[in-house]
Amino acid sequence: MVIGLLLGVVFGLVGGCGAGAYAVAAARTRNRVRTPPPPDTNELVTRLLEANRTLLEQERLRATSELDGKKGLIDQQLVSMTGELGKVNELVRELEHDRHKAFGELSNELRRQHEGLNALSEHTQQLREALANSRVRGQWGERMAEDVLRLAGFLEGVNYRKQATLASAGRPDYTFLLPKGLLMHMDVKFPLDNYVRHLEADNDVERARYRDQFLRDVRDRVKELRTRGYLDESDETVDCLLLFIPNEQVYGFIQTHDRDVIDDAMRHKIVLCSPLTLYAILAVVRQAVDNFRLERTSNEILGLLRDFSLQWEKYSTQLDRVQQRFDGVAKEYSALMTTRHRALQRPLDKIESLRLEEPALVDPEMVPFALEA
């Protein structure tokens, strides 16, 4: 494009020069004036070509300089981009490492969860097989109750007794010792046969039949406890009896399918409690025992304070008497040190003055001679 422009300029100049020369020649002819010959066209073209070469060289140098500058900028940007790409690669490697690590931890956790589920399934099966035996069910209920008692801070022989025979010939599983000699009983024997059959049933008909039978077993168990004599007033028992259900799921099952069972038991002063509700009841009992002990301790402290106040009054009275005696002794001592001392000092002063006024019987200057004689 630049070369074409330069060629256009050259041809324009050549054309212009030719037209100018023709015009000058015509004017000279008209005026009949002799003018010098026109300049050589080849020389003019040569000069124009030299000028174009110079311009082209300058343009090339400027373009080279600009290209070098742009190349430097491009190199800087490439270096910066290379550094950023390095950081991105490092970040990708770290993310990949973290992903592998997290994936490995997740795999391990899933494996542990799977092992835990297998172990839980085995324990559930063992528990189901164990609950098939009535004696084992009773031991399991007692173990659950003891765990709750231990969590509540109860100690056997201090807060409760096991299998204690009552005056009414009843023998509850647990007897809680309350303040002021009161007692509260709890039985942990609970029918679970039909509940286990309900869980193992293959169809809805059998499940419904075993469910109804289980709820009847619960009602029969409540009626049985009413005849045991656990609420006999001669035993100084509180006005309620606890029936322990050793499983939260069983307790929820009863509440869901027959709420009246719990209400009927409450009307007969029998409280059905699961492990959680038993813990809450025992916490209230423990708080009542602690409050009673605190009240009793407070009364003892108040009695001791009254005794201390009486003894303090006697002590203060006797101390005042001793203080009065000390004051009398101090007054007498002060009299001895002042009046009596001055009375005794006066005769001594007079004796001393008489001794000083008595004339000398022997001349002190004659004493040596007397000694020689």
CA distance, first residue to last residue: 171 Å
Helix coverage percent:
over 70%
* Mean pLDDT reading: 76
Q: Based on CA inertia axes, which overall geometry fits?
A: flat
Q: What is Rg?
A: 63 Å
Number of helical regions: 9
Instruction: Give me the side-by-side strand order of the main sheet.
Output: 1-2-3-4-5
Largest sheet: 5 strands, mixed
Q: Could you tell me the number of beta strands?
A: 5
Tell me the β content. Answer: 5-15%
Structural class: mainly alpha
Low-confidence stretches: 1-7, 16-24, 31-35, 366-373
The ordered string of helix (H) and strand (E) elements is: HHHEEEHHEHHEHH
Can you characterise this structure?
With 373 residues, this protein is mainly α. It has a domain at 128-293. 75% of the residues lie in helices and 5% in strands. It is built from nine helices and five strands, in the order αααβββααβααβαα. The chain has helices at residues 2-31, 41-131, 134-151, 193-200, 204-226, 248-257, 259-267, 275-357, 367-372; strands spanning 160-162, 174-177, 183-187, 241-244, 270-273. The chain has a five-stranded mixed β-sheet with strand order 1-2-3-4-5. α4 runs antiparallel to α5 and α6 (248-257) packs across α7. It is flat, with a radius of gyration of 63 Å. The protein starts with a helix and ends with a helix. Residues 1-7, 16-24, 31-35 and 366-373 have low confidence and may be disordered.
